[in-house]
Amino acid sequence: MLVSWKWLQDYVSLKMSHDEFVERLSRAGLNHEDSRTVGDDLQIDLEVTSNRPDCLGHIGVAREVSVLWQTGLRVPSPQPAESGPPVTELTKVAIECPQRCFRYTARVLQGVRIAPSPPWMVDRLATIGIPAINNVVDVTNYVMMECGQPLHAFDFAKLAGPEIIVREAQSGELFEAINHKTYPLEPGMCVIADAERAVALGGVMGGARTEVSDDTTDVLIEAADFAPLSIRTTARKLILHSPSSYRFERGVDPLGVDWASRRCCELILQLGGGRLAQGVISAGQEIPVREPIVLRLSQLPRVLGIEIPADEVQRILAALGCQGASHDAASVTVVPPSWRRDLTREIDLVEEVARVYGYDRIPEDVGVPMAPSHRSDEDRVLGKVRQVLLCAGFDEAMTASVVSEESAAALSPWTAAAALQTSTPMLKGADRLRRSLIPSLLEARRVNESLGNPVIELFETARVYLPAAGGLPSEQWTLGVVSGGDYYRLKGVVEAVLAALRPGTRLEAVDTRQPLLDSVKSSEFCVQGQCLGYAGELSADGLQQAGLRSPATVAEIRMPVLVELADLIPRYAEQSPYPAIERDLNLIVDESVRWASLADTVRRAVGECLESVRYQEIYRDPKKDGAGKKRLLFSITLRSRQRTLTNEEADQIRQQVVDACHQSHGAVLLGA
Amino acid sequence: MALADFTKQLDDLAAQAVQAFASAATAEAVEASRVEFLGAKQGRLKAAQKGMGAIDKSDRPAAGKRFNEVKEQVESAFKVASERLAASPVAAKKKEGPQFDPTVPGTPLRIGHLHPITQTMEELKDIMGRLGFSVADGPEVEDEWHNFEALNIPREHPARDPLDNFYLSTASTATGGKTALLRSQTSTVQIRVMEKTPPPVRIICLGRVYRPDTADATHYPMFHQMEGLLIDTQVTMADLKSVLRLFAASYLGRDVHIRFRPSFFPFTEPSVEADFHWDGQWIEFGGAGMVDPQVLNAVGYDPEKYIGFAFGLGVERLCMRRHGITDIREFYKNDVRFLHQF
Fold this sequence. Notes:
The complex is a heterodimer. By secondary structure, chain A is α+β, with helices and mostly antiparallel strands. Chain A contains 20 helices and 31 strands. Chain B is built from 13 helices and 9 strands. Chain B has helices spanning 3-23, 27-38, 44-50, 60-87, 89-93, 116-130, 144-147, 187-196, 237-252, 293-298, 315-323, 330-333, 336-339; strands at residues 134-135, 141-143, 180-182, 201-210, 222-232, 258-262, 268-278, 281-291, 307-314.
């Protein structure tokens, strides 16, 4: 809200400096945005919160000043002379959509001389950035900026009837506003119409056809109260906003409507002459009576933490316009003023008293009781997972939760249900809640490639949104990883994550087919029979689809399984005091023999004193071993809990392993 | 032997030894001279020492004294020569094969970086944890009751405008017919906690929130918030101010002052903007206030018995100010050179 320093002084004395003025107002609720000189006046920009439409006019701001500095407030009392015929002989008003227009008042002035406004009015309007048009239009703007009530002046001769009908727009009805743009209207929008057509978009903007021009002599002054939601919907739909719609969206003072109408007429008579018809036509609902509110004085220390003297409480409420203050020792009862529709409850009064009394009086050093706090398991697990990824050389990325249709369709391993969609796109073309992190991470990799970054190892922990029938979606915390390394690099990372959370747990790799991924160099991961996630190198098609130049591998893991598996408080296990013995094995097997099944055979063959089986490498020598064969090099570590194993025992076990592998997999020991 | 002869013999020996050690160019030459002059069995000093027996008894003290002087001189010359050669690049040059270069960089270790937003949130969780606030979590896709009604935002309120929220399109929503949207604040989690547990409640919730906005240097349609909530039987705005002060002081590392400016939020009454004083100016911290009695009613708490405060701040804004980041879009671009700065 732009305020003129000079204009404000019509209503309240400003003895303080500008700086003191803006500082104190900011501390009481009207935040100072900016000030600048306009001519010989000062324009001050104050931020008015949406619950204080009473401050969208100079009188409202002046009232705040009078409350804060405890100075008198001067509000004009317009009583314009009514020398014309009864207004009811001149026109009539009907409201056909009472849910959109609560009240409509009309006054008529005849024989007005349209002329430029006097310099004092032009200057004041200029200070707050409103251009001068002519005396009648300027007065409507002036009064709106004086008290916050929007007004409109119609060229009375151009109103068919002449009558005013407040109704819903008809489907397809066209309307040319004073900005000379034509708008297609629809039902739900409130229009001011005459006997033939819409002449104004109620509460938003007047029409070009009936606007006051140099030829106008008779004027109808509209002062009305429109439903906030209706105004807002209309303005947004048509993308047509005005200082008028702004005020109606926030609500106007029902008792201020007539004051504004009289004030407007008074000033027009002053500046343009003419005769004011007698009386006012007023249609609409009855103005509701404000209920009294009881403020229990005990609530002030209860809420604020400070005591405020009862007489100060009463002074503040009275200065703000609250009426009929009665009180007893324990409470104050007031009726809030009509321009403060935000004051309806005791707590609202507490806030009023507090902000005027001063929040600076509330101490900032009271002792706050201590309390325990506990870190959740999910948080701990997430912390460990991130730690492992950092150690593995991955950087944490953060990508948008809402992606494009194309991205959402690229890969969806966790659900077959279609991605949820937003009505408004979040970013250009992005309106699907993602079901996988991988497409977003691949895009991040692509961006990094295009920037020429050589090493791009990224991970993200975030939710994916899996639609659930009949309710809100299931939001699954997921770990996504994208790397320039190969399948084994990411499998190693996943194994490391598992080892950090539950050492000794084996990761099983199961064949899978996923879009984007190479059909061979990928697998699903399971732990203790539960699906944990998957990893895979991108296929050539996948790389192309992702716009990537270098090979890339991805992995995605769901966190809830990790949280369930995690052993956050490991228990000590006694270590065997006896030394371990290692034996190496080099077995020649068919290509089709998989490590996991061979390792299982080894475990079964050795039994209890097998401490570990350690895979070393796969080696191929077709010349020596023939085609379709590979060598699995691995070692076994043996240790007993009861005694030191002898070399002979170790050799014997080794032989058991070789035999079992031969029996189950046709493995042949190298050199045998 | 006459003392004079003995002394001359020693002087000659000393001069030769000093000359020999001074001119020794290699470790081997130093060693050879050492053996020649200082050798325990065949050294010339040893030989000279044996010759002391032929000197008159009365001259022996003088002879012995001169002998000791010479011995020290020769030993000193040997020490100097040894040290000279040990430090000499000449000695080093004489070594064969590859040389150790300590100036070559150490074996690189690539350690990843946490995203700066995560780092900020971890620090906030830490600080608030120490103040006795535990972390609560909740969904990002919310229904209207949790995101609006329960927060005292009725149907007609501008905050519910379809252009100001990411509502899920009804065609794609299988949410049992209820309208769903991406949450516009983390206060939804506070509602969920309060409706499930009786007071006292002392929590923070952090996470992603969504508000339609064109992406530019200071706006992004997705960002992170942290909100705190404390509900108990006796809580005042002084407690709120004090907690914010403790928080700000912990975050900035030194004592700060807090200022309240009146504001308006549907879910708090009184509502304030909290600022903290830093570097000679007041800086916006975030919104705060006493939880509106309507909100307490909505979750089944009796506002006559219970009272409390809530506060919230934007994580991106805090992170940008601390690190001097000027474009919010950097957070979501994930250029690894950006990530590696934090």
